[in-house]
UniProtKB/TrEMBL annotation, chain A:
It comes from the Bacteria. Pfam families: Rieske. SUPFAM superfamilies: ISP domain. It comes from Paenibacillus cookii. This is Assimilatory nitrite reductase [NAD(P)H] small subunit. Gene3D superfamilies: Rieske [2Fe-2S] iron-sulphur domain.
UniProtKB/TrEMBL annotation, chain B:
Its cofactor is FAD; [2Fe-2S] cluster; siroheme; [4Fe-4S] cluster. This is Nitrite reductase [NAD(P)H]. The lineage of its organism: Bacteria, Bacillati, Bacillota, Bacilli, Bacillales. Keywords: 2Fe-2S, 4Fe-4S, FAD, Flavoprotein, Heme, Iron, Iron-sulfur, Metal-binding, Nitrate assimilation, Oxidoreductase. It comes from Paenibacillus cookii. Belongs to the nitrite and sulfite reductase 4Fe-4S domain family. Pathway: Nitrogen metabolism; nitrate reduction (assimilation).
Length: 118, 811
């Protein structure tokens, strides 16, 4: 797919997140402490919590609802919980700081139905 | 406004630390320019060995990233080495042609690895171990080559060797002395360390003088004075560091081994200061981080015009942690004339301890294998108090674990009743025994609350634990030590003590300096560190919103569907028709799905979209009710003497006053207050954190109640006469709770842990209460209504909105 310009890296606070609507899916963009930007679908595989509202620690985010920890590079939920979220590739222009969304890079799996939101 | 010009030469830990302090104390005083030779922002040099050992990523060692310099409008010349100071013109020049005028110049040029001037030392593959570049060279070499030699068997050399070993290289440490780390260890401890390291695969050559490095373009062999040779493709020189004083010397600044400074870190030339490894204070240069931070704190105060007693030098200790080997060393551990030493050696468990005493004072210690007494011994050493009569106990007595539980228990049982267990607070074994047997103290925490034992440095905790075990038997609670979360083994008290001792300034710095396992912490420790720093340094600490939970970051309660709820402040539960109309209009305008009266006598607007929050706050124009925070929540009141026929006092007025007095206060956990107008207690004050019940002619003050998970009735703190006294006691109580409880610990749990008596004691003197009250006021003085702040600040407000979709369509 073509790259989509989605704003500037300065739009996101360090260790913070912003959201972006892409083809009907809400995507959470995180800016890590080292300045890099990672993107995942904004929906915790547990009960659909908005990951963009969580606390960023290293390369992971803690879901604000029940503290599930999700690795932002792989989209995988950290142990002891299971599941994964879809990840998206983001490019940042090192000079201008412009951010581009380059499509989905990994598929997500929701938690088994009995764990998912009712 | 003409700001003074401050120039810092050296972009490392000591210098930047000083600048951070100056910015906190006097943010507008200086226009700052920084020169740094390395092309990096300030990073944590201490962490480089863990980068090599595989624990951390290179990017994780950065302490201040580029944006920090921008934010503070600091001009940074990274990659510039200052080559000349002109003290008459007050100007510095860099090798790349940059120049800067100064009113104040700080030299923080650090030190260089001492490179042995051997023939062949200029070949490829010969490096020091100092900076990121050296680390990169080592990483790269480990991919292509197999054999490495480290010259120098000191702390730095062993860390480098450990890192290279981890990278898969065959490592030999070459040492000129007969044993390792001779500056920190005696021969016995050193031999034990060597054995451990050999078991991990490290090789050693002792009494070897390196004479030449052979090879063509790249190093191939190290040649010794006895003509033996060692094959090596990578040679790391770690024989020592030398303060970098070249620049200072050229400028005519007085230089010995380091740049000579006085207690205010001033050099002999007015306006020029030096801090860190390059500075020599009272004849000593330091290479460890704690003293450098202490120096930085003194200099910053001086530059900010604040009062300081000056720097008085540091007693340092060394802790080496190379994969499972625990070594501790402090002070003068060699037996010099007039000094006596005591030793304990256990070759079965590989434990060795030695303490050195001069006169009746402890002057040095070496510990191997079991370093749990390190901090305790170190604190005794720093205090310089007499240890007469306790020498053997210092050597043997602290650690209840020691060698096998049985012997430790026997040792404790056999100990004389009048022996001192807690040296800091002078608590004897008898006092502790008494607390366990007659006062029902079955945990270390309750013994501490009762006797103060282990309440200061905490070093005697294992011993107290042992005594609790001994006398309480099966009733003993609280097992082995656990840290505040999985990222550390340190407890709340230890962390807070280190924060105040080293004047730590940020969550990130705390985690770096105190050796967190996870460089960026987790959702448990980050908010707690943020709280402790704010509590300790209310004037200077900048709250980190990224270390707060969602609710406290967005100043609203997140709901299960990602919407939020809005609870405005309604003081004492008293509202008015016009306020109600306004709330109703806002609720209608924003289609709020549910409007509910809360248990705390306020109104909750539920199901609000995040994007709507700032606008709703603006239109409500009411203060935040903090219904989302670890903070003062509500002050519930009954009608009281204003209308009620039973009311004895104006409970509404009292409640409104308390809420206005303490609103916005950050606390370890949420705090709820209530005021009842008579003993019928309709405001349910006796299940609140601080409950006030009016009686005829006075007020009863109750504390430590809880109506939630763990229902607990309050305990009576005291009875006072006037409203002013109620406010004073409430403020003092809240501040004492803020300063002593663990983060996320409600008053009910805290009081159960420390005991009401200890709280009463802390508050019973008027002077203590006034001091506590002044501190709570100081904390409150910095806080503004968060809703108004967000409404007015675009940078904060943007976080409530998604990135615009429109940007995508066209670009």
């Amino acid at each position: 797919m073509a790259k989509i310009h989605i704003g500037n890296v300065s739009d996101i606070d360090r260790k913070g997140a912003r959201t972006f609507l892409f083809e009907g899916t809400e995507i959470a963009l995180f800016r890590l402490a080292d300045g890099s930007v990672l993107a995942v679908e904004n929906k915790c595989p547990h009960k659909g919590g908005k990951l963009s509202e969580g606390m960023v620690c290293g390369r992971a985010v803690h879901c604000p609802l029940h503290d599930w920890k999700i690795d932002l590079s792989s989209g995988r939920v950290c142990e002891p919980d299971t599941g994964s979220v879809a990840t998206y590739a983001v490019e940042v222009d090192p000079i201008s700081g412009a951010m581009y969304l380059c499509g989905r890079s990994g598929r997500g799996e929701t938690a088994p139905p009995d764990q998912a939101a009712g | 406004m003409d700001r003074k010009k401050l120039v810092l030469v050296g972009n490392g830990m000591a210098g930047i630390r000083t600048i951070e302090h100056v910015l906190k104390l006097a943010p507008e005083a200086y226009e700052i320019t920084i020169f740094g030779s390395e092309p990096h922002p300030n990073y944590n040099r201490i962490m480089l060995s863990s980068v090599l050992a595989g624990g951390s990523d290179m990017s994780e060692v950065i302490l201040n990233d580029w944006s920090w310099y921008e934010e503070h409008r600091i001009r940074l010349h990274a990659g510039h080495t200052v080559t000349q100071i002109d003290p008459l013109a007050r100007k510095v020049y860099s090798d790349k042609g940059a120049a800067a005028d100064y009113d104040v110049l700080i030299l923080a040029t650090g030190s260089d690895p001492f490179m042995l001037p051997l023939p062949g030392a200029d070949k490829e593959g010969v490096i020091g171990f100092r900076d990121i570049k050296d680390c990169e060279t080592m990483l790269e070499a480990s991919r292509k080559y197999k054999k490495a030699a480290v010259i120098g068997g000191g702390l730095l050399g062993l860390e480098a060797a450990r890192g290279l070993l981890h990278l898969g290289m065959d490592v030999t440490v070459v040492h000129i002395h007969p044993y390792l780390m001779e500056r920190q260890l005696d021969e016995t401890a050193s031999k034990m360390l060597q054995k451990e390291l050999e078991a991990q695969g490290m090789k050693f050559l002792f009494r070897k003088h390196s004479e030449e490095i052979a090879g063509r373009k790249r190093a191939r062999e190290l040649v010794f004075s006895d003509r033996t040779r060692l094959e090596a493709d990578l040679i790391v020189m770690a024989v020592g560091i030398k303060p970098n004083v070249k620049l200072a010397r050229q400028a005519g600044i007085a230089v010995n081994r380091g740049i000579v400074v006085n207690d205010l870190m001033q050099t002999n030339i007015p306006g020029i200061y030096a801090v860190g490894e390059c500075a020599e204070h009272r004849g000593i240069t330091y290479g460890l981080v704690a003293p450098l931070y202490e120096q930085g704190a003194v200099l910053a105060k001086h530059l900010a015009g604040a009062e300081t007693e000056g720097y008085a030098g540091s007693v340092t200790s060394t802790k080496l942690k190379v994969s499972g080997v625990d070594v501790f060393s402090a002070g003068h551990f060699a037996e010099t004339e007039g000094a006596r030493s005591l030793r304990y050696q256990d070759e079965v468990d590989q434990v060795y301890k030695k303490i050195v005493i001069s006169g009746d004072r402890l002057i040095g210690a070496v510990l191997f294998g079991d370093t749990s007494d390190g901090s305790k011994l170190f604190s005794l050493m720093k205090k310089g108090e007499s240890v007469k009569g306790r020498e053997k106990e210092l050597l043997l007595g602290f650690s209840a674990q020691g060698s096998g539980t049985e012997t430790a228990e026997q040792r404790l049982a056999a100990m004389a009743d009048d022996e001192i267990i807690c040296g800091c607070n002078g608590v004897t074994k008898e006092t502790i025994k008494d607390a366990v047997l007659t006062k029902n103290c079955t945990t270390v925490a309750s013994v501490k609350a009762c006797t103060k034992a282990s309440g200061s440095c905490g070093g005697c905790k294992p011993l107290v634990q042992g005594l609790v075990q001994l006398y309480a038997g099966d009733a003993a609670g609280e097992p082995a030590k656990e840290g505040i979360c999985g990222c550390t083994t340190l407890t709340r008290d230890e962390i807070v003590a280190e924060m105040s001792r080293m004047k730590l300034q940020s969550v990130q710095e705390t985690m770096h300096v105190l050796g967190w396992n996870n460089p960026e912490g987790c959702s448990k420790c980050r908010p707690s560190l943020n709280y402790y720093l704010g509590m300790l340094f209310p004037e200077s600490y900048a709250d980190e919103k990224e270390s707060r939970f969602t609710n406290e970051r967005y100043h609203a309660n997140i709901q299960k569907d990602g919407t939020y709820s809005v609870v405005p402040r309604i003081y004492g539960g008293v509202t008015s028709p016009s306020e109600l109309k306004k709330i109703a209009e806002v609720a209608e305008k924003y289609d709020v799905p549910m409007v509910k009266i809360t248990g705390g006598q306020r109104i909750d607007l539920l199901g609000v979209k995040k994007e709507d929050l700032p606008n709703m706050w603006a239109e409500l124009d009411m203060p935040s009710g903090y219904a989302y925070g670890k903070a003062l929540r509500t002050v519930k009141t009954c009608v009281g003497s204003t209308f009620c026929r039973f009311g004895t006092q104006d409970s509404i007025g009292m409640g409104v006053r308390l809420e206005k007095e303490f609103e916005r206060l950050n606390t370890p956990a949420k705090v709820k207050l209530a005021v009842s107008g008579c003993p019928r207690n309709c405001a349910e004050a006796t299940i609140k954190d601080f409950g006030v019940v009016a009686i005829d002619g006075g007020w009863e003050l109750h504390v430590g109640g809880n109506g939630g998970v763990h229902v607990r009735a309050t305990e009576l703190l005291c009875v006072v006469k006037t409203e002013d006294e109620v406010v004073e006691w409430a403020g003092a109580f809240l501040q004492y709770y803020r300063e002593n409880a663990q983060w996320n610990e409600r008053t009910s749990v805290w009081i159960e842990r420390v005991g009401l008596e200890s709280v009463k004691k802390a508050l019973e003197n008027k002077e203590d209460r006034i001091a506590l009250f002044a501190r709570v006021k100081q904390a409150l003085g910095r806080l503004n209504d968060p809703w108004k702040e967000i409404v007015a600040d675009g940078a904060l407000r943007k976080n409530f909105e998604p990135l615009p979709e429109a940007a995508s369509a066209r670009n």
